[in-house]
Amino acid sequence: MNESRSLPERLTDDLTADLSVSIAAVAIALVAFFLAPVGESVGNRFLLICTLGIFIPYAYGEYWPVEYSPTYAVVWTIAAGLVTSGLFIGVFAVAQSVLSSTAAGVVAFVATVCVQYGIAMVFPRVR
Asked: Which of 8, 87, 88, 110 keeps 20 to 30 A from 51, CA to CA?
């Protein structure tokens, strides 16, 4: 990266590089925040929206080997969001039967992020 560019220029480039993915991920995260059955704790909901709104765009930008058109990128993001939400909610439900709600949220977060990055890193090798 050319370091002679100003910080605002670099920040603008980073924020708009995969804008369709970021917007779709934030929209999914907001829907999940209000609708996901992850207990009453705001902390659990925060962990879920982090996996959706932060880690999905990051995995797409850093690890995913294919750069799609904006429309396909949104479809990819929605699919990744559905898989991520399902995984988080499933792990949360199983962990909550053994652990407290807060601990179950942490376990679900760690498991989901590990699976997200595992898939994102293995996929390029499989293709």
From this structure: 8
